[in-house]
């Protein structure tokens, strides 16, 4: 299809509670929505960057600039299909979240025009997916127990605790003591440790965790190889896995035995599917990560999570986990699951009044 324009809409989405991780606190999402406008209709993408470059090197101001200056022009220059976006942008290094957002919008436009859903296109095999929830770092253990108790009550099938040095063994012990050993429980360090902490992290082994996510820095594949030999808890990588090539390398070197797939981090849903297929071929289970997405990104994530090798519950929480008012019809938990949208493309759209209310700025790029 021929793109007529790309609209970049910067929105502010207030969060219900601050979300604290080892790299910072988020209270309001500063998000970029991408609207692909074509002669055959439109499509939506969501950029998963945040305000500051703290989870990864990308951030929203930079994504806006990168899309305007480098990503939009080659895509507007000649007809394009979603599966060609990666190749068309291959001379632009990095900026995967920015590329992913634009690819998502083009894919949505394409699938809407042919009447196919994201899940169908990606190869989904389930009509609903098991959901976990990511629990931020709390001020004290009493508060943490209350938060976890509430999420279990809401039906979440798996709890992930954010950890950092000084907030690791004790909170995990407290949650295990309170909720028992049947609770599916895992932790996420967002790269807050070094290899010198290997023995300390072995202290988590007694709690029967599903996995420890990204203990060491993004670039430190060798460190994770070493750590995986010391710690019995399975190592799962998030930040480190930026492409199918890196995933193949990490698996071959035994840096991890589980992978968290986030489409934004790897440059789009098509690369995400490649990583899924690779992991499936190697017997490496995957699960769908999250980046505090609005209903747009959430719809695509739930579709991705319906692929066969997504055998662990994902960070595919309900809309009300983060937002009192989502930009789409809200995703609501039913028996710990979310329904995979079946309509054309994402199967959801921004609600016009909400979109107007949260929009801070709109830039339209034409050829
Ligand atoms: O590391 O998985 C992460 C949120 C923002 C950035 C990074 C991460 C997270 C989460 C929450 O853990 C995921 C979600 O619920 O969307
Ligand atoms: Mg993570």
Structure description:
There is one protein chain. Helix content is about 35%, strand content about 20%. It is α/β, with parallel strands linked by helices and about 375 residues long. It is built from 13 helices and 13 strands. The protein has helices at about 60-75, 85-90, 95-115, 120, 140-155, 170-180, 200, 220-230, 245-250, 265, 270-280, 295-305, 350-360, and strands at about 5-20, 25-40, 40-45, 130, 130-135, 160, 185-190, 210-215, 235, 260, 285-290, 335-340, 360-365. The model has no long low-confidence stretch (mean pLDDT about 100). A hairpin with a 2-residue loop joins strand 1 (about 5-20) and strand 2 (about 25-40). The strands form 3 sheets. The chain has a 7-stranded parallel beta sheet. It folds into 2 domains: about 5-115 and about 350-365, 2-Layer Sandwich (Enolase-like, domain 1); about 120-340, TIM Barrel, CATH 3.20.20.120. The site of 2-succinylbenzoate has 11 residues, from loops.
Subunit organisation of the chains: single chain
**Roughly what is the average pLDDT, rounded to an integer?**
98
Helicity level? 25-40%
3D shape: globular
How are strands sequenced across the largest beta sheet? 5-6-7-8-9-10-11
Quote the CATH topology of the largest domain.
TIM Barrel
Q: What count of domains describes the coordinates?
A: 2
CATH architecture of the largest domain: Alpha-Beta Barrel
- For this structure, what is the CATH class of the largest domain? Alpha Beta
SSE order? EEEHHHHEEHEHEHEHEHEHHEHEHE
Largest sheet: 7 strands, parallel
Give the strand content.
Answer: 15-25%
Tally of DSSP β-strands: 13
């Amino acid at each position: 299809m021929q793109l007529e324009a790309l609209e970049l809409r910067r929105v502010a989405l207030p969060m219900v509670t601050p979300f604290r991780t080892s790299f910072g606190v988020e209270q309001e999402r500063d998000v970029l929505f991408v609207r692909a406008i074509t002669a055959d209709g439109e499509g939506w993408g969501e950029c998963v960057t945040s305000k500051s470059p703290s989870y990864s090197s990308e951030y929203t101001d930079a994504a806006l600039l990168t899309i305007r200056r480098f990503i939009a022009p080659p895509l507007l220059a000649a007809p394009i299909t979603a599966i060609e976006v990666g190749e068309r942008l291959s001379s632009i290094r990095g900026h995967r979240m920015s590329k992913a957002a634009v690819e998502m919008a083009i894919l949505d436009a394409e699938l809407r025009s042919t009447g196919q859903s994201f899940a169908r296109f990606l190869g989904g095999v389930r009509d609903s997916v098991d959901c976990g929830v990511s629990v931020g770092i709390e001020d004290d253990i009493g508060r943490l127990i209350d938060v976890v108790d509430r999420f279990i009550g809401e039906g979440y099938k798996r709890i992930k605790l954010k950890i950092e040095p000084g907030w690791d063994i004790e909170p995990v012990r407290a949650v295990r003591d309170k909720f028992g050993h049947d609770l599916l429980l895992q932790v996420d360090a967002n790269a807050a440790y070094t290899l010198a902490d290997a023995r300390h992290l072995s202290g988590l082994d007694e709690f029967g965790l599903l996995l420890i996510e990204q203990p060491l820095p993004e670039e430190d594949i060798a460190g994770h190889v070493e750590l995986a030999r010391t710690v019995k808890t399975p190592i799962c990588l998030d930040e480190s896995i930026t492409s199918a090539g890196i995933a193949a390398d990490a698996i071959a070197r035994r840096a991890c035995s589980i992978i968290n797939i986030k489409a934004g981090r790897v440059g789009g849903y098509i690369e995400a599917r490649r990583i899924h297929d690779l992991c499936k071929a190697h017997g490496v289970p995957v699960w769908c990560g999250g980046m505090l997405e609005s209903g747009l990104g959430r719809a695509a994530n739930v579709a991705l999570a319906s692929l066969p090798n997504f055998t662990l519950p994902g960070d595919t929480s309900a809309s009300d986990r983060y937002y009192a008012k989502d930009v789409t019809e809200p995703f609501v938990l039913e028996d710990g699951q979310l329904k995979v949208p079946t309509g054309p493309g994402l199967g959801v759209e921004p609600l016009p009044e909400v979109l107007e209310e949260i929009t801070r700025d709109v830039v339209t790029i034409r050829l």
